[in-house]
Design goal:
- It contains three helices and ten strands; from the N terminus they run βββββαββββααβ.
- By secondary structure, the protein is an alpha+beta fold.
- The protein has one domain: Protein Transport Mog1p, Chain A, CATH 3.40.1000.
- A seven-stranded antiparallel β-sheet has the order 3-4-5-9-8-7-6, with helices on both faces. A three-stranded antiparallel β-sheet has the order 1-2-10.
- The two termini are 31 Å apart.
- It holds the Pfam family Mog1.
- It comes from Rhodosorus marinus.
């Protein structure tokens, strides 16, 4: 088991999906408007975030879906730099609660250099972005799980002004990997009617 006692069950999209997250991740819909197709959680102390969203199918085959969404996000964020470091399929062992007859899952890991929110380009942060794309067969939906972990926070970025720091235990490589793996292993689709099934 990749989780410990400070992980809690979160109900998503009206209880149709369930996932475990560390308790320090706050539901952003409690503090700001979040679109209906997204669930957003963030840890203010570290500027880490987890975004789960229902997206239209990426314009690619299922085996490249996570990579396609990584590249699309890089473009949308107008990143100054990016590097895709790994891309692969997701096994049943990694995502024990997924019905592989209904889902074609892939993952992508990389880094991006981009400013946060409305920060100027010169205040860009470096972020490790881990993406899991659960392509739902028979429906035109890619269910996207994006985990953002800052590797460098510019001293004048909005994240730094809010007190976020990368100098903490949760930011070492094994903890970043554990966060992504813990989300994948606990992710459950409880009600397929969310996708029109």
């Amino acid at each position: 088991m990749v989780q410990d006692r400070n992980w809690t069950v979160r109900k998503l999209f009206g209880g149709t999906i369930e996932v475990n997250l560390p308790e320090e991740f706050e539901d952003m819909s409690d503090v700001r408007l979040v679109p209906d197709y997204q669930e957003v959680f963030a840890d203010a102390d570290t500027d880490r975030s987890v975004i789960i969203e229902c997206m239209q199918l990426g314009l690619c085959g299922p085996e490249r879906a996570a990579t396609w969404h990584f590249e699309n996000l890089v473009s949308e964020m107008e990143a100054q730099n990016s590097e895709l470091q790994d891309a692969a399929g997701i096994t049943q062992q990694e995502a024990v609660n997924l019905d592989m007859s209904k889902v074609s899952p892939t993952k992508a890991l990389g880094t991006i250099v981009a400013p946060k929110f409305r920060d100027e380009i010169v205040k860009a942060n470096t972020v490790e972005m881990s993406i899991a794309c659960l392509r739902l067969t028979n429906v035109t939906t890619d269910l996207l799980i994006t985990v953002n972990c800052p590797l460098f926070i510019h001293s004048e970025s909005s994240a730094a002004r809010d007190g976020a720091s990368i100098q903490n235990e949760s930011n070492n490589p094994s903890e970043r990997r554990r966060l992504f793996e813990g989300i994948l292993s606990s992710f459950k689709i409880l009600d397929w009617s969310l996708f029109g099934h």
